[in-house]
Specification:
This protein is an alpha/beta fold. The protein has a domain of 120 residues: Malate synthase, domain III (Malate Synthase G, Chain: A, Domain 4). Helices cover 46% and strands 12% of the residues. An eight-stranded parallel β-sheet has the order 6-3-2-13-12-11-10-9. α1 packs across α5 and α11 runs parallel beside α12. The longest helix is centred in the N-terminal third of the chain and has 35 residues. The two termini are 33 Å apart.
Length: 541
């Protein structure tokens, strides 16, 4: 272990948690403090650059591939580092937060990979941040079990060879961790807290288990942000004394700006990159956010009407597959968010067919794997990829040289025939209120109307309300999208929830706060960059 300990970090306004001393050791906090000292100033510069780029998009209503990096795209010689054995076959990945029960169930799910999520599927309470780390440590030492206090059912890990490989997702660059501050009172970026604690405690242990510290990188907006992550990895590996290249990172291409820099992102991370992922809901949210004042041609219809077969979504996913395979990286497909019903077999039948069709399309398009949100979907997705892959671990040899995507294809939103509907507005309000209420209770992954929703779905919901109002959309029933209509729909939904769950449960929840926050971020003229920023101010714990 190198380097003298820098000024220690202070734990601010946080109630002590059981066994927190096992995670928040002096040595671990010294490492996080050094990450903070070295890299937070660059993080701040890159956040400022995001705002500048957004202003440029507002001025021009267009995006293009970067002229200054054309040489990287034209150079056919470079490849990312070969995938380690534990990440070579990723045909099905399950996602979810790192609470104790989910940790066991995800590892046991039969999926090849578990995305252990500290980001959109986890509300960042101090308990979730710290105990989520503890659960992963316990999983790697096989000292984890769980008994459901309500059902009495017990959960334990299967044999090691049957467990999913963990790929951990830290928070995005934009969120700070309010409970950790340096000597000047400056908060540490949540990304560095999540990455730092996990890497410090587990990098060596994972190598001994025949795996390694693997990460999903969320909300990346440019290759310069990928370069920052690469520099973090280089420093971290030296600091704890593991070989360079031990880290592997898969980048979520879930912002419209990153879609124009896929090759450059892989290039910056080439010694540590293992793939790119198509993150559907955040991608749509990013399109609305960046082109929100671009006029009628950028107005999205209801979110459920924007399927992956929409021309601009097809351009995005096919470009992703081609880019990854050209550079020797895995291409990972999008989320199947359906949650099976225990009561309605017909709902399940229809939904399973949709999931199967979606996964068949991804496998046939050349993806090497895909996401599901529920263990019951693992066999369906596995079947789709088994049919195409057979005994091969991936299909990176399918170069998709038939794919040709122009810059304009990625933002051809007006190629869709679908239009916003009144029912779409109602659904956006329903999902927004119900998700935010759960998030304020510390839950980041929530089943709503048989779909697993996370922060990305709440973002697209509030963004669509904002966009439709500001674009003066008229719905098929003659109603016009206005703040008054949004307030009316939200009030009706609040009344409906009160009736549905009863007065006592309603009062015990955060329903009014969720209603008010949804309306604030949907109606404010000054569009909030991320819903989670004002929501975090209201999050207890």
């Amino acid at each position: 272990m190198s380097a003298p300990a820098p000024s220690p970090l202070a734990i601010v306004d946080a109630e002590p948690l059981p066994r927190q001393e096992e995670v928040l050791t002096d040595a671990a906090l010294a490492f996080v403090a050094e990450l903070h000292r070295r890299f937070t100033p660059r993080r701040d510069e890159l956040l400022a650059r995001r705002a500048e780029r957004r202003a440029e998009i507002a001025r021009t209503s267009t995006l293009d591939f970067l002229p200054e990096t054309a040489a990287i795209r034209a150079d056919d010689s470079w490849r990312v580092a070969p995938a380690p054995a534990a990440l070579n076959d990723r045909r099905v990945e399950i996602t979810g937060p790192t609470d104790r029960k989910m940790t066991i169930n995800a590892l046991n799910s039969g999926a090849r990979v578990w995305l252990a999520d500290f980001e959109d599927a986890s509300a960042p309470t101090w308990e979730n941040v710290v105990l989520g780390q503890l659960n992963l440590i316990d999983a790697y030492t096989r000292s984890i079990d769980f008994t459901d206090p309500r059902s009495g059912k017990s959960y334990a890990l299967r044999p090691a060879e049957e467990l999913a490989t963990v790929v951990m997702r830290p928070r995005g660059w934009h969120l700070d961790e309010r409970h950790l501050a340096d000597a000047d009172g400056r908060k540490v970026p949540g990304a560095l807290v999540d990455f730092g604690l996990y890497f410090f405690h587990n990098a060596q242990r994972l190598l001994e288990l025949g795996k390694g510290p693997y990460f999903y990188l969320p909300k990346t907006e440019s290759h310069l942000e990928a370069r920052l992550w690469n520099d973090v990895f280089v420093f971290a590996q030296d600091y704890v004394g593991v070989p360079q290249g031990t880290v592997r990172a898969t980048v979520l291409i879930e912002t419209i700006t990153a879609a124009y820099e896929m090759e450059e992102i892989l290039y910056e991370l080439r010694d540590h990159a293992s793939g790119l992922n198509a993150g559907r809901w955040d991608y749509l949210f990013s399109i609305v956010k960046n082109f929100r004042d671009g006029g009628a041609r950028f107005v999205l219809p209801d979110r459920n009407a924007v399927t992956m077969t929409a021309p601009f979504m097809r351009a995005y996913t096919e470009l992703l597959v081609r880019t990854c395979h050209k550079r020797g990286a895995h291409a990972i497909g999008g989320m199947a968010a359906f949650i099976p019903s225990r009561r309605d077999a017909e709902v399940n039948k229809v939904a399973f067919e949709k999931v199967r069709a979606d996964k068949d399309r991804e496998a046939n398009d050349g993806f090497d794997g895909s996401w599901v949100a529920h263990p019951d979907l693992v066999p369906i997705a596995m079947e789709s990829f088994d049919r195409v892959l057979g005994d091969k671990p991936n299909q990176k040899d399918r170069l998709r040289e038939d794919v040709h995507v122009e810059a304009a294809d990625l933002i051809a939103i007006d190629s869709l025939d679908a239009k916003p509907t009144y029912a779409g507005l109602v659904n956006a309000v329903q999902v927004g209120i119900r998700y935010i209420e759960a998030w304020l209770r510390g839950l980041g992954a929530v089943a709503i109307f048989n779909l697993m929703e996370d922060a990305a779905t709440a973002e697209i919901s509030r963004s669509q309300i904002w966009q439709w109002i500001n674009a003066g959309v008229e719905f098929e029933n003659g109603d016009k999208a206005t703040p008054e209509l949004a307030r009316k729909v939200a009030a009706e939904e609040l009344d409906h929830i009160r009736e549905e769950i009863g007065e006592e449960a309603f009062r015990a929840g955060h329903w009014q706060e969720a209603h008010d926050l949804l309306l604030k971020v949907s109606l404010d003229e000054d569009y909030a960059d991320f819903l989670t920023l004002p929501a975090y101010e209201q999050l207890k714990g």
